[in-house]
Amino acid sequence: MDNGASSYRRFLEGEKEAIVEILSEYSDGLVLFIYSITGNISLAEEITEDVFCELLLKRPGYNSKSSFKTWLYAIARYKAFHLMKRRKRFSDAPVDELYDIAGKEDLERDYLKTEQKIQLHKALERINEEYSQVLHLTFFEGFSNSETAKIMDKSNRQIENLIYRAKKALKNELEKEGFVYEEL
């Protein structure tokens, strides 16, 4: 798959099934990315729906200057910030609701991993919003620094600095709780 571009091109040419490919490929990642901006899972799902409705109804032109995924995430980021400007207050969904403890093999290990993920996500919520976004895009979504720069409307150098400061802030936040995250 051409990072979504070929599916979108086929959709624009009239192949309605191609939009299903885009939905299945990108919806979960978009929800999590938007959640990192809004801190509200319901709102993140709503904004994700808006992004896909815009693709379906307005059919914006994709110019191939960046990857399709980068373009799609930039649209989502814009919509999230636009909606947040219009709304004054949000009701937060606790991060705990996002995780299920599945215990097929080793309940204790799975429980500890889940707790670590929860601690990590809670720590991400406590650091600067831009730090949380840049970490989400680069580490959870796998965007390159240049793609992240396009999504966040920053220069590559600014993204490098943000990643450095974000990792440091996250590490400090986690260490306050006695948690050491090896990959930082």
Question: Would you give an account of this structure?
Answer:
The two termini are 31 Å apart. The longest helix is centred in the N-terminal third of the chain and has 22 residues, at 17-38. The chain has 184 residues and is mostly helical. The chain has helices spanning 5-12, 17-38, 41-57, 68-86, 107-126, 129-140, 145-152, 156-176. Residues 89-93 and 97-105 have low confidence and may be disordered. It has two domains: 5-86, RNA polymerase sigma factor, region 2, helix turn helix motif (Rna Polymerase Sigma Factor, Chain: A, Orthogonal Bundle); 105-176, Arc Repressor Mutant, subunit A.
Listing every helix as H and every strand as E from the N terminus to the C terminus, the arrangement reads HHHHHHHH
Which whole number gives the mean pLDDT? 80
The CATH superfamily of the largest domain appears as RNA polymerase sigma factor, region 2, helix turn helix motif
**What is the gyration radius calculated from CA atoms?**
18 Å
List how many beta strands DSSP finds.
Answer: 0
| CATH secondary-structure class of the largest domain | Mainly Alpha
Return the CATH topology of the largest domain: Rna Polymerase Sigma Factor, Chain: A
- Helix count, per DSSP? 8
Percentage beta strand: under 5%
What is the total domain count?
2
The oligomeric state is: single chain
Task: Flag low-confidence runs.
Answer: 89-93, 97-105
Q: What's the story with the biggest beta sheet?
A: none
Task: State the helicity in percent bands.
Answer: 55-70%
